[in-house]
Amino acid sequence: MTDYQIHHQAEESLFYVHLEDGQRAFLKYSRSGTESAEAMVDFYSTFVPDAYRGKALASKLVDHAFSWAEENNLHINTSCWYAAKKMERRQRSPSAGDHLNSV
């Protein structure tokens, strides 16, 4: 399996991976609040082209984005069904961060 590098394009609120054929797999988010108690990120859209599905790209993107949010002390919301599914699994794990929540 190819080791894909995840990029963060903050100005577009996007985490993405360049794929061999020029396409991208991505996770989109929106950010709100500036005070630490109110700072929030909503992961609302995950996309992986058909030819690349089943290679854990969405999982890697979401895990990377969750780690980024935790490092930046952001409360996490998950409008995207896939991110919500990953969040549910993380919440069942004893190592999940205290500020994780889904909407």
Topology of this protein?
Blueprint: E1 6-9, E2 14-18, E3 24-32, E4 40-47, H1 57-71, E5 75-78, H2 81-92
Parallel strand pairs: 4-5
Antiparallel strand pairs: 1-2, 2-3, 3-4
CATH architect. name: 3-Layer(aba) Sandwich
What structural category do the secondary elements indicate?
A: alpha+beta
Largest sheet: 5 strands, mixed
Q: Tell me the CATH superfamily.
A: Gcn5-related N-acetyltransferase (GNAT)
Mean pLDDT: 89
- CATH class identity: Alpha Beta
Low-confidence stretches: 98-103
> How does the overall form come out from the CA principal axes?
globular
Instruction: Supply Rg.
Output: 14 Å
Number of domains: 1
Beta-strand fraction estimate: 25-35%
Question: Termini separation (Å)?
Answer: 34 Å
The overall strand count is 5
Could you describe the 3D structure shown?
By secondary structure, this protein is of the alpha+beta class. It has one domain (6-92): Gcn5-related N-acetyltransferase (GNAT) (Aminopeptidase, 3-Layer(aba) Sandwich), CATH 3.40.630. The chain is built from 2 helices and 5 strands; from the N terminus they run E-E-E-E-H-E-H. The protein has helices at 57-71, 81-92; strands at 6-9, 14-18, 24-32, 40-47, 75-78. It has a 5-stranded mixed sheet. Strand 1 (6-9) and strand 2 (14-18) form a beta hairpin. The chain is globular and about 40 Å long. The protein starts with 5 loop residues before the first strand and ends in an 11-residue tail after the last helix. The relative contact order is 0.17.
